[in-house]
Write a structure and sequence with these properties.
By secondary structure, the chain is α/β, with parallel strands linked by helices. The protein is built from 13 helices and 12 strands. It binds pyridoxal-5'-phosphate. One of its GO terms (biological process) is transsulfuration.
Length: 389
Amino acid sequence: MSLRPETRVVSLGRPPHEEESSLNPPIVLTSTFVGRGDARGVRTYGRDANPSWDPFEEALADLEGAEQPAVLFASGLAAVSAALSLVPQGATLVMLRHTYLGTVAVARELASRGLLTLELVEADGGAGLVERIRRPAPGGLVVWLESPTNPMLEVTDLPLVLAEARRSGVTSIVDNTFATPLGQRPLLLGADVVVHSVTKYLAGHSDVVLGAAVASTPALRERLVQQRLLGGAVAGSFEAWLALRGLRTLALRIERSQENAAELARRLEAHPAVASVRHPSLPADPGHAIAARTMDGFGSILSIQLPGGAEEADAFIASLRLWVSATSLGGVESTLERRRRHPGESPSVPPGLIRLSVGIESVDDLWEDLRRSLDTLAPASPEGPRDPA
Ligand SMILES: *Cc1c(COP(=O)(O)O)cnc(C)c1O
């Protein structure tokens, strides 16, 4: 029976339906497994396996369309680091300038040790990446994709770029944190590896730090498992259990938060004190056409700029009552932050840009809080934001 994703998030990763068996998988707390002889079994020690990982790993693989289980890690960045270890020494790694800042930091660190050459390219929907993939690099090419990007919300035509990478024999890795497998399934489009910050939408309640990588082949999965074993960034049993518990409501949460985000984007766009809004749902957004064609839904992250730049943004954020000023995203609660408050954020992100992660609250309560503060601000000039960048 082929089930829809809304059903699969609820039914995957459960013990078999047997009389008196637990409906939910148990949490197994152990550092070691009983074994006699030469330790060739699957489970020996808590760094190579834990039954508490299995249900989530199987569920995520199914949602992403992978044939073998995902690989859980202690954080999204641990999964990113493991995926970046697949880049051969001396190869060129191509990624968008506005890739998640932690990913860029790991790539820069590898480049500074001469292990790879890092090329940051501007987002243009994907044509530039396709052109880059067609030009061979000495030592080989690996392309890292993230769509939409964090926090600029640039949308890339993944079907186009991944097909070209596959044709050209270029390894491709996709960070699918923002879209989730309900929004797009890059492995089915030809990607070699998909990574997730499970911390965000998949777990969904801002109470867990966790990551995962999903490979397209058993051999690639084996290399990721090896990285987990050697890097030691193993997931805790309780965290894995919480992530599966969060996954149960993923479809519901995404449905509501996307709806809220699109409605807020429309209202923000119409408010005179807002200089600009980015959300792929808006017909005028540069990513709208590609997102409408290649994604299921437009996501629940949006960004705005106020005319007064960083100072006005900070005052605006401080004046809100319901919205929480906090980093991270993808939880049930609505949060926002001025991204450039992080010293590691790209200088090409406007200093006043505010990223909003829209939750599942009443859209009218969320709007009331924003509107009350916006009404106190001066109208935006017709030239748009006064940010220097
Ligand atoms: C948060 C995030 C990460 C890092 O994940 P952690 O769980 O915080 O380690 C990676 N990629 C994207 C797109 C993210 O938003």
